[in-house]
Amino acid sequence: MNAAQRVFVNSTNWIVELGRSFIFFLRILKCLPGLALKPRLVVEQIYSVGVLSLVIVVVAGLFVGMVLALSGYRLLVGFGAEEALGTSVALVVVRELGPVVTGLLFAGRAGSALAAEIGLMKATDQLSGMEMMAVDPVKRIVAPRFLAGVIALPLLTSIFCVMAIGAGGGYFVGVDMLGVDAGSYWSGIQANVDFGQDIINIFLKSGVFGAIITWVAVYQGYHAPPTSEGVSRATTNTVVIASLAILGANLMLTAVLFSGG
Amino acid sequence: MIQDPRKTADSTAAAPNLVEVRQVHFSLGKRVIYKAIDLDIARGRITAIMGPSGTGKTTLLRLISGQWRPASGTVHFDGQHVAKLGQGELFEQRKRMGMLFQSGALLTDLSVFDNVAFPLREHTRLPERLIRDIVLMKLEAVGLRGARALYPAQLSGGMARRVALARAIALDPEMIMYDEPFAGQDPISMGVLLRLIRRLNDVLGLTAIVVSHDVKETLGIADYVYVISDGEVIDHGTPDDIRNSSSKWVQQFIHAEADGPVPFHYSGRPYAEDLLEEGRS
Asked: Count of domains in chain A?
């Protein structure tokens, strides 16, 4: 097979895979209304993918906020505009870094765990066993995890933003360490962060990212070859594909959501 | 010699069939598993499917349950063409079947009790008190009532398979498919399982398909036996018919002989040639 043929075959396989994953996505969506009767399944998964991701999100939020305040202060102080530190940290975190960094952390922590869990369930015949008990694994296993991801990521993103901007992160470095006026820090944020433009968009963006990450994770796990290598590859693919998809989706969403401003 | 699998070998073959497999051809990748196989599973009887490892015995169960579809040919369960059923109809049909997987296939995040209760909670609206009683009865039958609080990771392979059996009979299905039920069982558990399979059949009139290569145990409880190899039915009949089969292949299989028509070694280059080649390199 020459290079051109290889490119053609790989492209065809990629398109087929994309089509299969879209059909799988539609199957998941079809199962979502049924979860209203079994909310406990979703709550358990929100704990698994959300609460258990809290530590990494909180710690990352604190460090990102501190670094932004430190580097932002050095830049702003040159123009005598250090009072705008709160505004700059908040806008960068709320509009871009919050959803994207939390999404990347979520893909690494929860996405990989979801893919490995479902892949191992497949490898150990647990999914086949469910099918034989007339229980649809997409409805019982996949859909609750998907919905939990969509709900958990916006909440985690909010926590990340609060940590990055608030008392432990940007505020600590900017106000407590570098001496920026606390009133200027908060009033700048209050004046420039728009609830409709910024806060609502955090939830929109991170909700979309949550859907993308869990969709990739459950698809990779569900279709992983039932071997240890297959599960390992599904886990890696989840992190790589979901991370790139988040970055791509972020570009598109930013262009759409902030086009007016 | 391949015989006509629809021959009426004894009275069991005259009973109405719950499952009918006709001219089924199935491949996994390039490997042909079945070449136009025919067999019947009589209602209310224990039918054993025997053959060496890798001959597609488990595949047959997956074809009967509709998890896989044959490339050609038909599988009918109680008169319904399995491959033509939609997901809803297939799931309704599966509520009438139980399957004991070779690996057990227990849900690892649930306890033994919750594993057995799983199909009851999913498919019935029984009160929790009644579910508890049913689960304890099923676990008592497999000797693991005392292990109900354990998790699958804390069970031995044999215990896991007994829990899986309790789960498979939780909904009192019409037919149970046992995939290698005797593998990894100690003699006591093996005896209990043999009696349990026989008793489920005798008392409740369940139809059973036992896939196994444990000759003595399987021939001891089966009403009818199919021996398959290389994608074909090699022989079939009552256990006595199989014991007295004129087929050299069947005789080699049931007496576990090294020499015979079935090669022990996977086909390849001569041993000496391979060793010498290795030495040169």
From this structure: 1
Which of A125, A128, A133 is the closest to B119 by Cβ? Answer: A133
Within a domain: residue B71? Answer: yes
Domain total of chain B: 2
Per-residue pLDDT, averaged over B181-185, amounts to 80
CB contact under 8 A, A131 and B92: no
β-partners of residue B80 are: B77
Q: Is A37 inside any structural domain?
A: no
Q: Are residues B91 and B188 in the same domain?
A: yes
pTM reported for the whole predicted model: 0.85
Bigger pLDDT: B279 or B238? B238
Instruction: List, for residues B211-226, the tens digit of each pLDDT value.
Output: 988 888 889 899 999 9
Q: Locate the chain A residue with the closest alpha carbon to B89.
A: A134
Q: What is the CA radius of gyration of chain A?
A: 21
- Beta carbons within 8 Å of A165's beta carbon, 6+ residues apart: A65, A86, A89, A90, A93, A94, A171, A189
Cβ-proximal residues to B87 (8 Å cutoff; 6+ apart), any chain: A136
Is residue A33 assigned to a domain? no
Which among B115, B144, B168 is the end of a domain? B168
Asked if residue B75 is part of any domain, the answer here is: yes
Domain enclosing residue B146, as ranges? 106-168
The Cα–Cα gap between B11 and B148 comes to 41
Strands (E), chain B: 17-28, 31-42, 46-50, 72-77, 80-81, 97-100, 175-179, 207-212, 224-229, 232-237
Please check whether residue B217 is in contact with residue B190, taking contact to mean a CB–CB distance below 8 angstroms.
yes
CATH of the domain at B238: 3.40.50.300
Q: What is the tens place of the pLDDT at every residue in A63-97?
A: 999 999 999 999 998 888 888 999 999 999 998 89
For residues B6 and B88, membership in a common domain is answered with yes
DSSP A145-180: HHHHHHHHHHHHHHHHHHHHHSTTTHHIIIIIIT--
B155 plus B246 within the same structural domain: no
Complex ipTM > 0.90: no
* A-chain residues near B101 (CB < 8 A): 125, 128-129, 132
